[in-house]
Structures are given as C-alpha cells and as structure tokens.
C-alpha cells in the first residue's frame, strides 16, 4: 500500500510539472512586438523592391521601436513604430475588423522611409496579415 501511495504521489508530481511547462509555453514571449515590427519592416522593404545591403536592426523602448539599415546604394533605411491605443489610431489609418472584434487594446503604427522617401505608413498587424495570406 505504501508503494502505491508513493507511486501515485510521484505520478501526480510529474503530471503537475508537465502541466506547468505546457502553460508556460502559452505565455507571450518578451520581444513579440519588436519582432513583429522587424518582420513587417522587412516585408515592406521586400514588397517595395528595395535592395538591402544591411538588414534593419531594431531597438525599442517601452512603446517605441526604431529599425535602421542600409540599401545597396548607401541610402539609410529607417523604420519607426509606436504602440498606440486602438482609440488613438490616426484617422487616416483604419483598424482591421479582426482588431476591432478581438478587442485589442493597442496596435503598432509603422512608418518606413528609404533615404528621404516614405514608402509605407500603416499598421504592423495589417502588413503581417497581408503577407501571411500571400504565402497561402
């Protein structure tokens, strides 16, 4: 009987530990937003046919993101993004229905310039969504 109780306790401990590690995998990963900004920046540059010499490297503060790179002809690539509340999205940008339905609190607004020419201004989520569909 004692062995049965010990085996049951060990099995319970293993099951509890496995459950915790699986739940931990579901938590958001630190850096999700900066990774999204980096991917969206690269997608915008590729969609615009920009020849990249140095891929943009991104840094961030709490709600602001900056990515800097260089084109093959030496022009600077600058992507700047800010996390804003959904009710503070600039009026010239529209939220996708998914963001309104999901009740997202914040979105990330991205501007990408090459040299002195702005090639994109919009939402990171929209770039990611469009390019996800393009691969299907």
Structural class: alpha+beta
- Percent of residues in helical segments? 40-55%
- What is the alpha-carbon Rg in Å? 22 Å
* Total count of strands: 5
Strand order, sheet with most strands: 1-2-3-4-5
Which percent band covers the strand fraction?
25-35%
Largest sheet: 5 strands, antiparallel
Give the overall average pLDDT.
Answer: 78
Work out the helix count. 4
Q: What coarse outline follows from CA principal-axis ratios?
A: globular
Gap from first CA to last CA: 58 Å
| Helix-strand sequence | HHEEEHEEH
* Low-confidence runs: 17-28
Short description:
The chain has 136 residues and is an alpha+beta fold.
Structure explained in plain terms:
By secondary structure, the chain is of the alpha+beta class. The chain contains 4 helices and 5 strands. It has a 5-stranded antiparallel β-sheet. The radius of gyration is 22 Å and the shape is globular. Residues 17-28 have low confidence and may be disordered.
Spell out the blueprint of helices and strands:
Elements: H1 2-26, H2 32-47, E1 52-60, E2 64-71, E3 76-85, H3 97-102, E4 106-114, E5 117-123, H4 124-134
Helix pairs in contact: 2-4
Entry keywords:
single chain; 136 residues; alpha+beta; five-stranded antiparallel sheet
């Amino acid at each position: 009987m004692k062995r049965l109780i010990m085996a049951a306790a060990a099995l319970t401990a293993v099951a509890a530990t496995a459950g915790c590690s699986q739940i931990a995998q579901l938590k958001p990963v630190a850096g999700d937003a900066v990774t999204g900004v980096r991917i969206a920046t690269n997608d915008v540059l590729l969609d615009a046919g920009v020849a990249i010499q140095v891929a943009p490297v991104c840094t961030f503060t709490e709600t602001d993101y900056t990515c800097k790179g260089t084109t093959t002809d030496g022009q600077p690539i600058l992507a700047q993004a800010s996390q804003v509340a959904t009710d503070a999205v600039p009026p010239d940008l529209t939220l996708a229905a998914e963001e309104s339905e999901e009740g997202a609190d914040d979105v990330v607004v991205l501007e990408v310039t090459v040299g002195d020419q702005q090639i994109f201004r919009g939402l990171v989520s929209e770039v990611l969504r469009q390019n996800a569909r393009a691969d299907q």
